[in-house]
Amino acid sequence: MRKPVVGVIGNAHRVENRFQVQMVGERNLRAVAEVSGGLPVMFAGSPDITDIGALLDTVDGVILTGARANVHPTRFNVDPCEKHEPYDIHRDEVALALSVACVARGIPLFGICRGLQEMNVAFGGSLHPEIREIPGRMNHRMPRLENGEIHPDPTVVFADRHDVDLTPGGAFAKILGCEKIRVNSLHGQGILEPGKRVLIEGVAEDGTIEAIRIAEAPTFALGVQWHAEYDPQHNPINRKLFEAFGEALVARQKAVA
Asked: Which pathway does this polypeptide act in (predicted)?
């Protein structure tokens, strides 16, 4: 049997302030290849380039990665604000439609950070642009130096920062074999109201939604607010998630063989 093919969504970037490119973080690609056992293939987060139907005829699973850009507020009936930029409206268009299509067609879907947020919005949910501004919430953004620059040490940036309580008997608790985990935190935006089919399976100690499952999905359709692609070779929580995603890929292959 061939390796499962996993589509990994790209993000719009401008290189040297001149060249428009689509980029994917290498950690996502390595997690798919080294832990899930799949062949990662980047696809463009642009509806002018990516035909969703053709994509889903080709891949065995999809990863919606994290990204710097926020989901555009008009996707959940809120006015945009400059301080919450940048946005990536083209990725929004692809990712939201893709989330619904993957579930409908029984194709494994794994949303990470922005990917979780996209899954929620795709099923009718809303987001808050700055979780830390909600009373009682902690700052979920990545650590920075006193001068405001991002901390240069990735082990500090991606270090576990808070606990997440998992739903007893839920998909995450079954995959991870426990009901409390500790995760990293590198996001500003987060779920405000869950979508109609979005089941909350993990909540941080401050009430922030950290893990979701799409109800009645025929296969793996999970989202996490933390960056699960970070070091899954050594982080047992992230490794188990990518292994479970890999098992779903193989099952999908067998089902359509």
From this structure: Amine and polyamine degradation; putrescine degradation; 4-aminobutanoate from putrescine: step 4/4
Token pair listed for 247: 């098992």
CA distance 97 to 70: 17
- Positions marked catalytic: 113, 227, 229
Residue 99 contacts residue 118 (beta carbons within 8 Å): yes
DSSP-assigned letter for residue 206: T
Express each pLDDT in 124-178 by its tens digit. 999 988 888 888 888 888 788 778 788 888 888 888 999 999 999 999 999 999 9
What span, in angstroms and rounded, lies between the C-alpha atoms of 98 and 245?
Answer: 17
Superfamily for 5-129+189-256? Class I glutamine amidotransferase (GATase) domain (3.40.50.880)
Is the Cβ–Cβ distance between 129 and 188 less than 8 Å? yes
Nearest 5°: CA angle at 250, between 111 and 7? 40
- Measured CA to CA, the distance from residue 100 to residue 246 in angstroms comes to 20
CA distance 141 to 154: 14
Angle, vertex CA 194, rays to CA 190 and CA 195, nearest 5: 125
Q: Count CA atoms within 13 Å of residue 162 on its CB side.
A: 23
Whole-model pTM: value is 0.95
Q: What are the C-alpha distances in Å from 83 to residues 79, 86, 130, 232?
A: 12, 8, 10, 33
